[in-house]
Amino acid sequence: MLMKETTLRIRLFGEPVLRRKAEPVAQITSVHRDILIGMTRAMYAESGVGLAAPQVGISEAMFVVDIGEGLYKLINPKIVKKEGRQITDEGCLSVPGVCIRVRRARKVVIKAEDENSKPITIEAEGLLARVFQHEIDHLKGKLIIDYASLFEKLRMKKKLGELKKKVKHEELSESETKSCPLFRPM
Which of 11, 81, 87, 140 could potentially form a cystine with 15 if both were Cys, beta carbons 3.0 to 4.6 Å apart? Predict the structure, then answer.
C-alpha cells in the first residue's frame, strides 16, 4: 500500500511502463487518492504541468494537471470531443531534454472521474487542452517522440540511446533531467 510520505520517482524513456497501456481504475480507493497526492508533489517538484500515473511506474488510468489555473486530478479520462488544431513544441518529464513539435486539437471535452468517484466533464482549450491530450497519450503508452518526423527521429536517435543507457545505470545529471521550455500557444 502506498503511503502519503512515499516519494514517487518519475520514470524516464526506456522504462517499459511508459509503453504499456494503463488499466482503467475499477474502484477509486484511498490508495488512488494517495497516489494522486504523490503524483502532484512529484509534478510540482519537477516544475511540470502534468503527470500521468505510468510516468511514476503505475499502470493505471489517472493523471494530474496544473497549468497555473488550478489542479486537476482525473481518473479514467476520455476525450469525447475535439475541435480545431494547434501545433506547438512539447517537452516531457519522461523524455528530458527533448522537444518535439506536436499537432493537437485546440479544444477538447474530457469526461473523467474525480478522486471521489464523481463524474466530471471539462471543456478545455489552448494549453490546458494540449496538456490533457499529452497526459492521455501517456495512458495509451504513447510518448512525444512518437510524433517526431523521420528526420527528427534520426537526429535524436543517439541522444535517446544515451538517455536509455544513463537511465539503466542511474547516471542522469541534473541538467539532463530538464525538459524543453513551455511555450504557450497564441
Answer: 11
